[in-house]
Specification:
The complex is a heterodimer of chains A (94) and B (987). With 94 residues, chain A is mainly β. Helix content of chain A is 10%, strand content 34%. In chain A, a hairpin with a 7-residue loop joins strand 4 and strand 5. Chain B is of the alpha+beta class. Classes of the chains: A mainly beta (94), B alpha+beta (987).
Chain lengths: 94, 987
């Protein structure tokens, strides 16, 4: 079970949160066209390694966090607000 | 009652204990309080405890702890027969009744023991090549036989008897220390002294582990234990086994309650402790190893350390004429202890050419054969003699009643490997040693190959200081280490030992077991290699080595060693199989905890639940909610249609409090809702409600509801019951991820408002009597009006929306005032013949009207499929806009919403009936999603999703249910069968 460091509430159990997918994918502009939206909805990288993702703290503060997690070891290196930039170093580029 | 010939001394755990009577296989025995079943049986001279899994060979007690492979028994309790209990850890209590396993008709004479003679025909994996033909035999012969042969114990619960549910306790601590031996206690002292919170978990009934077996360590142990009891942040949990390490500092541990605690807690037997720790210290010790040789499973063959444990802990001698077969100095402790109790060993076969301990043994008059190996044993139900080949090649036979073996010690690294620690081969101890990453924790003592109690204590203290330094800083840690040392007693010195010499197998003609519980031999491992299963994980699964309940704790490394020899590679390259939770088997009841029977799921009750219950409602679980289905003892069409008829002809009231309600405020609230909904809400006037459709980003309909505008920057969104949390999450995600910078505040107000629908031609009449401060005429409060109102003196909200298709209102009042308002409406409606109606009647009414619910909003339907294409706004972006315009979603043969009526009005419809063309009766064109007998029209009616449905309106098809063997002709009609001009709702 993951323990996720919510920036507002502190470290909490995984089951207080809801996973909301890849945080590196931005919703296309409204006139971007079918191909862009199709990629946005259906296509995802599936990395073995660092992954920047959304978690919504539904059983806590209700805030959306951006989390940097390694998909193999499940280590969580960083969690922050949506507008923050994740501190990516050479060894943890998603 | 048998005497206790094996009790030769006072044991640490049984000294002064009361006599306890127990039964094994129907015979009565006597033991002492503090005994385990195994120690009491050994004291009584019982050697035969069970029969092995595959060959039904006679088996006895092999170890003194949870690594026991052979002595498994069934225990009869008030709740039934519980299988696979370890006799070596089962505490004796008055009246304990245990039964041996896996034998028929008796332990002494087991018919299936004849299998043992056929061993050459049933090697590992034989079932991959047998039981092939004939085909008829699989179900009638092979399967029943195999089922009966499989397994060890018998599970026979007493129907109706329930054990007290287990408890789940959540723990938070700074440091979890697993194991309270020399290393664990030393570390706990240091870490506790630094002010950190410590949880010390020990699987044994007492703290101390290895120190319990050495009288010199008693003072040190007592001092440490007293010191820990004083420390404010240190908690010790005995009989608590840490079973799994899940990463992120989360561990699961099982605590087994002792008899006294069980009585104090109303029969509670187990606690599951879910522990969250910042750091872990694994002081789990080491486990003595088996050696593979012919007959190494005969009752009387035991681990040398077990003999020492039985003598020290329970005062029981495991035999009168012991012979030793060992390759290390530590195992000689058992020999010295037995000698001190008056039992001289008949001989020692030491694998090594010379050793210090061997010299000491010779001084006691024991014959020690150096460089020797045991090649065979004699005896089947009990050991009689041991065959030895000395270093010079001389054959010797020694009469013996027990053979105490020790092949070395393997660090108990299960939890470490679960945490991902790599294993490094350490030649000096002939075993793998785990290395834990610093941020996770440390391993100390024998668990990382540091043998000797004093060395382990120092190692533990050092590891404790390192962890304390990481969490509190170097200075605090140093002070704590010094304080702990000062408080402690002097460490007795470790004996100087000659290094061990690895021995895995003595090759011979007969079977040499590497896994005692699954009956796997070294020949089986070599067979796996010949068959091409070269990787240790493949060998494991082919032979089932280490796959029994003991997980091959004493013989795991032997399988790897035999495989390594077969492959011609060093053991360090072969490795061990990966350990996974759980370290020990645990009952499902412990995992379920209190969430059993009526507590399996939380229940959500509406504010008026008690009123509905007193009114005789039958409830239906809708997700976690309990909703009134019908106000009758059981749901029948008579009752349901009676309620629906009352609504159509007079007036009814129903509780819709379970709907999701989300309060949306802010300068950008309207703009945000335009983005969320497929239709427009910024154009909604204040004081009006509008039906809205929400899409998913892939263009499918997600949810529907009515949203009202209560102010220029204030909206109230409603959702379906099932989707209330999903919609709130969707809104929060869209707002925070995709619409940052918008001034919008979302609040979930679902629980705060109780909501009722009052529906029927006389609903206005009834509500006029209870609503104050508002005119309810059609002009003053038209269809889809919404706003504040005082209802029965309570400030609330009134909406003129209709789900039933009649003139209807919904009123929302604070949940605390629900009873008052509901009663007032019922009182005002009595002259009109008002009655409450439940979910079934509500469903009948909405189907007649053609309103969609979850049955039609099944996640695969688009807005166009449901007939809502014109609702999608032409201008402006919204969630799902682009993908809803995909060409495929506009195909003419998509499943579209239609109405269905039986051609012969007396026939019934069923949900799920497939719609087919009469000329192609197996090609499904669609299916019925909802159906009901109608109160307005004659006969049944339903809604369906039909390929190209709208174009088929006016035609006839066949509805079939192969499951019920029914078919009938149906008319395809518009889904809006009742009052399609909406005259009633606009009245």
């Amino acid at each position: 079970m993951l323990r996720i460091p919510c920036p507002w509430c502190g470290t909490r159990d995984e089951n207080e949160f809801r996973y909301r997918g890849d945080a590196d994918v931005a919703r296309p502009e409204h006139d971007a066209g079918l191909a862009s939206f199709s990629a946005y909805v259906y296509e995802r990288d599936n990395p073995r390694g660092w992954h920047l993702e959304w978690w919504l703290h539904v059983a806590g503060c209700g805030q959306l966090l951006k989390v940097l997690r390694h998909t193999q070891s499940h280590e969580i290196r960083w969690a922050g607000c949506p507008e923050e930039r994740a501190p990516l170093s050479e060894d943890c580029v998603p | 009652m048998s005497a206790a010939p094996g009790r030769v001394a006072a044991g640490l755990l049984t000294a002064g204990g009361r006599a306890v009577t127990f039964r094994f296989d129907g015979r009565s025995f006597r033991g002492l309080e503090g005994d385990t079943l195994a120690s009491a049986l050994l004291a009584s001279g019982e050697r035969l405890i069970g029969r092995s899994f595959k060959y039904h060979r006679p088996r006895g007690v092999f170890t003194a702890g949870p690594e026991e492979p052979c002595a498994l028994v069934d225990v009869m309790t008030a709740c039934g027969r519980e299988p696979n209990q370890l006799a070596t850890t089962l505490m004796l209590h008055e009246g304990l009744e245990a039964v041996s396993q896996n034998r028929w008709p008796s332990l002494a004479f087991d018919v299936a023991g004849a299998l043992d003679r056929l061993w050459r025909f049933v090697p590992a994996g034989f079932y991959y090549k047998t039981f092939m033909s004939p085909g008829w035999a699989w179900e009638r012969l092979y399967e029943p036989l195999i089922r009966r042969a499989a397994g060890l114990g018998v599970l026979a619960p007493v129907v109706g008897a329930h054990a007290e549910p287990a408890e789940t306790v959540h723990e938070h601590t700074d440091v979890l220390i697993v194991g309270a031996g020399a290393a664990g206690l030393a570390a706990a002292a240091v870490i506790g002294a630094s002010g950190l919170r410590v949880l010390l978990a020990e699987q044994d009934v007492a703290l101390g582990a290895g120190t319990l077996l050495d009288a010199r360590w008693q003072a040190w142990r007592e001092r440490r234990r007293a010191g820990l009891a004083r420390g404010p942040g240190v908690r010790c949990l005995e009989q608590t086994t840490v079973l799994g390490a899940y990463g992120h500092g989360v561990f699961a541990a099982l605590e087994v309650l002792g008899a006294a605690e069980r009585a104090a807690f109303g029969g509670l037997r187990e606690r599951l402790r879910v522990i969250r720790a910042q750091r872990v210290l694994l002081a789990t010790g080491s486990i003595e190893r088996l050696i593979a040789f012919q007959g190494n499973d005969v009752p009387g063959v035991m681990l040398a350390g077990a003999a020492l444990a039985y003598l020290r802990r329970y005062g029981v001698a495991v035999g009168r004429r012991p012979v030793f077969f060992i390759n290390n100095d530590e195992a000689y402790e058992a020999l010295f202890a037995l000698a001190a109790a008056g039992i001289t060993a008949a001989g020692v076969a030491d694998v090594r050419p010379a050793s210090r301990a061997a010299e000491r043994a010779r001084e006691l008059g024991v014959e020690v054969l150096c460089g020797a190996r045991v090649t065979a044993v004699h005896g089947r139900r009990a050991l009689r003699a041991v065959q030895i080949v000395t270093g010079e090649g001389v054959q010797r036979e020694l009469a013996a009643d027990c053979l105490l073996i020790s092949g070395g010690f393997t660090p108990a690294a299960s939890l470490a490997t679960q945490l991902g620690a790599p294993l490094a081969w350490q030649e000096s101890i002939g075993a793998f040693v785990p290395q834990l990453a610093g941020a996770v924790g440390r391993v100390a003592g024998a668990a990382r190959g540091v043998f000797g109690l004093a060395a382990a204590a120092r190692d533990g203290a050092l590891a404790g200081q390192v962890i304390a330094a990481e969490l509190c800083g170097q200075e605090v840690a140093a002070v704590a280490a010094a304080a702990a040392e000062a408080e402690g007693a002097e460490l007795p010195a470790d004996a100087v030992t000659t290094p061990m010499s690895p021995l895995w197998e003595v090759r011979g003609r007969g079977r040499a077991f590497v896994d005692l519980q699954n009956d796997v031999t070294s020949a089986d491992v070599r067979l796996a290699h010949r068959e091409g299963y070269e990787h240790v994980e493949h060998m494991k699964r082919f032979t089932t080595h280490t796959m029994a309940t003991d997980q091959g704790r004493i013989g795991g490394l032997l399988g790897s060693a035999v495989l390594a020899e077969a492959r011609g590679l060093p053991l360090s390259q072969i490795g061990q199989v990966k350990a996974r939770p759980y370290v020990q088997p645990l009952p499902f009841a412990a995992l379920a905890g209190g969430e059993v029977r009526e507590h399996y799921r939380p229940k959500r009750r509406v504010p008026l639940h008690d009123w509905h219950e007193r009114a005789g409602a039958t409830f239906v679980p809708t997700g976690l909610w309990l909703r009134p289905l019908v106000y009758a003892r059981a749901s029948s069409w008579e009752a349901v249609l009676g309620e629906a008829r009352t609504v159509r002809r007079a007036v009814g009231i129903t509780d819709v409090s379970t709907l999701g309600k989300i309060d949306v405020r802010g300068k950008d609230a309207a703009r945000f809702l335009d983005f969320i909904y497929a239709n427009t809400f910024s154009s909604l006037p204040i004081g009006r409600a509008r039906y809205g459709i929400m899409l998913r980003e892939d263009g499918m309909v997600f949810d529907d509801g009515t949203t009202s505008r209560l102010g220029p920057e204030h909206f109230l969104v409603t959702t379906t019951t099932a989707n209330s949390s999903a919609v709130l999450e969707h809104l929060e995600f869209q707002l925070q991820a995709n619409s940052r910078g918008l001034d919008v505040l979302l609040t979930d107000v679902g629980d705060q408002w109780a909501q009722f629908a009052v529906a029927g031609p006389r609903s206005r009449e009834v509500l006029s009597a209870v609503v104050g401060g508002r005119e309810l005429s059609n002009a003053a409060f038209p269809f889809m009006a919404a706003g504040e109102a005082t209802i029965a003196g309570v400030d609330g909200r009134l909406f003129r929306i209709s789900f039933s298709g009649e003139l209807a209102y919904e009123l929302a009042v604070p949940a605390s005032a629900a009873q008052q308002v509901w009663s007032a409406v019922l009182a005002a409606g009595t002259p009109c013949g008002i009655s409450p109606y439940g979910l079934d009647a509500l469903n009948t009414l909405r189907i007649e009207k053609g309103h969609v619910t979850g049955a039609e909003l099944n996640g695969n339907t688009s807005a166009a499929d449901l007939g809502f294409a014109r609702m999608l706004k032409p201008q402006g972006d919204f969630v799902g806009r682009v993908l809803s315009q995909r060409a495929a979603l506009e195909a003419a043969d998509r499943l579209q919403l239609v109405g269905v009526r039986p051609a012969v009005r007396t026939r019934r419809l069923r949900n799920g009936m497939q719609l087919v063309a009469p000329e192609a009766p197996t090609a499904s064109l669609g299916y019925i999603t909802s159906s009901t007998p109608s109160v307005e029209l004659e006969g049944w009616m339903g809604l369906a999703l039909l390929a190209g449905g709208r174009a088929r309106i006016g035609t006839r098809l066949t509805a079939v249910s192969p499951l019920h063997e029914e078919r009938l002709e149906v008319e395809i009609v518009s889904p809006h069968m009742l009052d399609p001009e909406n005259a009633r709702v606009r009245a």
